[in-house]
Specification:
5 helices
């Protein structure tokens, strides 16, 4: 199953009456960050999601360009790998 970067309108989510009220989401929209995308990772039994945000005035052609999306997917994997290193690192540090 191929991962994709799907951008969502932050203001539309913040104003959606069918979603729970979220003060941080409202503040994000008010700050001018108009678009958000979540990219999942799964590294060494650690699952998570990296949230990317972009200003409301971003050029969507550049945002959705193939190389940029590939960069975001790879960056999410790198962040996931760093996250998965926490426990093994702690075990090594505790053993010395």
């Amino acid at each position: 199953h191929k991962r994709k970067v799907v951008w969502r309108d932050v203001r539309a989510m913040a104003d959606n009456p069918h979603l729970p009220f979220d003060e941080r989401l409202k503040a994000t929209a008010k700050a001018g960050l108009g678009w958000a995308a979540g990219v999942p990772f799964h590294v060494n039994h650690h699952k998570g999601i990296v949230i990317y945000v972009a200003r409301r005035t971003v050029d969507h052609a550049l945002l959705k360009e193939g190389a940029n999306e590939q960069f975001m997917l790879c960056a999410a994997d790198l962040i996931g790998a760093a996250w998965s290193l926490r426990e093994p690192r702690r075990l090594v540090m505790d053993s010395h």
